[in-house]
């Protein structure tokens, strides 16, 4: 088996492969005066879409997603880009064919959102020496974690140099709803959103002392907590006046306690903010409801539209998990992915390149095997 450096020189495909990957992993930052469209604020994270959102669960403190029968929720991850003015987004710049946009999810922290794959040194993109390109192309990735969980219930730590205004009372920050129908990005690097009172395909979680927002959003839930007027007790046969008076006193005391507890609950809701602002996370997710088994069909500006069948997505995921050691199933997947590259669709080639980088496939390529031939195509 030839060395990775020799294979690199013989294939002579590193510049092409790197350009395909760089266009996604290390996009050039557009000049601020060119940000004329809201779509400039969010960029689809192809790698997270293909490899890191399949096992995620959403834990919003307030809302619970309940897709209709026969439908499923797809997470579209978007990298948040710097903006030079306030940009309000009521929809993501990319949609799914036949899908219904539900809202944006603002993760409470950047936990689980590290640059992936973590073992790729992005500084190597600027160094075109054969040794550096070889390390990038043939290095094996240690990031085989697969899906991660976005915990939306934990508060985000605010940097000490944040310049935007936070709500005066942050005692309820762990209860904030993090699923919202629209967001606003500010030039200071913050994201702002409002409390929604209804979201399609979502229902309120159970309200409690630790989860007050459902009471604030749905007045009926609060009314249900209002204590009914107690029935006046009557003196029982043979009961002494003293015992009757004591029973009346206990009843009145219990009634006052219930009324006071309800008053405190009602008053505490007034302190809950309805407008929220936090440092923007690296990635914000758009939730789209589609029919089950529809595959992935993205609509938007060039190079879209792009359709990825479930079978192709499964092959990409299989290759991405290779860890440099290809199984027979993964070698067969490489043959299938070669047909994607033949399509000449930019995102097909980009997806294949990302899967091969993630799986460290180039390092195990042998002359004229499936990995070798696919690298040559790229």
- In total, the number of strands is 14
For the sheet with most strands, the description reads:
5 strands, antiparallel
Residue share in helix: 25-40%
Mean of residue pLDDT values: 75
Cα separation of the termini: 21 Å
Roughly what fraction of the amino acids lie in strands? 15-25%
Structural class: alpha+beta
What gross morphology would you assign?
A: elongated
Count of alpha/pi helices? 11
Radius of gyration: 28 Å
Q: What oligomeric state do these chains adopt?
A: single chain
Q: Low-confidence spans: pLDDT under 50, at least 5 residues?
A: 1-36, 111-130, 132-169
Strand order of the largest sheet: 1-3-12-6-7
Order of helices and strands: HHEHEEEEEHEEEEHHHEEEEHHHH
Give structural attributes:
378 residues, 5-stranded antiparallel beta sheet, alpha+beta, disordered N terminus, single chain, 16% strand
Protein model, in words:
This protein is of the alpha+beta class and 378 residues long. 33% of the residues lie in helices and 16% in strands. The chain is built from eleven helices and 14 strands. The strands form four sheets. Strands 1-3-12-6-7 form a five-stranded antiparallel beta sheet. The chain has a four-stranded antiparallel beta sheet with strand order 4-8-9-11, with no helix packed on it. α9 runs antiparallel to α10. The longest helix is centred in the C-terminal third of the chain and has 30 residues, at 241-270. The protein is elongated and about 105 Å long. The protein starts with a helix and ends with a helix. The model is unreliable at 1-36, 111-130 and 132-169 (pLDDT under 50).
């Amino acid at each position: 088996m030839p060395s990775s450096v020799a294979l690199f020189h013989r294939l002579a495909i590193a510049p092409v492969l790197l350009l395909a990957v760089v266009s996604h992993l290390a996009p050039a930052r557009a000049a601020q005066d060119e940000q004329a469209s809201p779509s400039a604020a969010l960029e689809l994270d192809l790698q997270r879409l293909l490899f890191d959102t399949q096992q995620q669960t959403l834990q919003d403190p307030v809302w619970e997603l309940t897709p209709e029968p026969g439908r499923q929720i797809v997470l579209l991850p978007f990298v948040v880009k710097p903006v030079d003015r306030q940009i309000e987004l009521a929809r993501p710049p990319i949609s799914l064919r036949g899908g219904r946009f539900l809202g944006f999810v603002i993760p409470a922290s950047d936990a689980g959102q590290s640059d992936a794959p973590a073992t790729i040194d992005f500084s190597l993109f600027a160094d075109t020496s054969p040794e550096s390109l070889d390390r990038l192309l043939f290095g094996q990735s240690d990031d085989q974690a697969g899906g991660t969980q976005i915990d939306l219930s934990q508060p985000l730590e605010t940097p000490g140099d944040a310049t935007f205004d936070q709500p005066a009372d942050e005692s309820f920050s762990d209860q904030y709803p993090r699923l919202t129908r629209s967001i606003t990005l500010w030039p200071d690097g913050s994201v702002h959103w409002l409390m929604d009172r209804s979201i399609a395909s979502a229902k309120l979680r159970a309200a409690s002392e630790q989860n007050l927002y459902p009471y604030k959003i749905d007045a009926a839930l609060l009314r249900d907590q209002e204590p009914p007027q107690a029935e006046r007790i009557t003196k029982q046969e043979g009961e002494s006046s003293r015992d009757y008076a004591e029973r009346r006193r206990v009843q009145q005391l219990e009634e006052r306690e219930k009324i006071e507890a309800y008053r405190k609950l009602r008053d505490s809701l007034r302190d809950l903010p309805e407008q929220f602002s936090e440092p923007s996370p690296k990635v914000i997710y758009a939730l789209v409801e589609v029919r089950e088994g529809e595959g992935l069909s993205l609509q938007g500006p060039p190079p879209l539209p792009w359709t990825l069948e479930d079978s192709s997505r499964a092959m990409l995921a299989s290759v991405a998990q290779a860890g440099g050691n290809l199984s027979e199933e993964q070698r067969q997947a490489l043959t299938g992915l070669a047909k994607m590259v033949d399509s000449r669709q930019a995102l097909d080639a980009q997806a294949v390149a990302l899967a091969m980088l993630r799986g460290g496939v180039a390092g195990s390529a042998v002359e004229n095997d499936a990995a070798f031939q696919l690298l040559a195509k790229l």
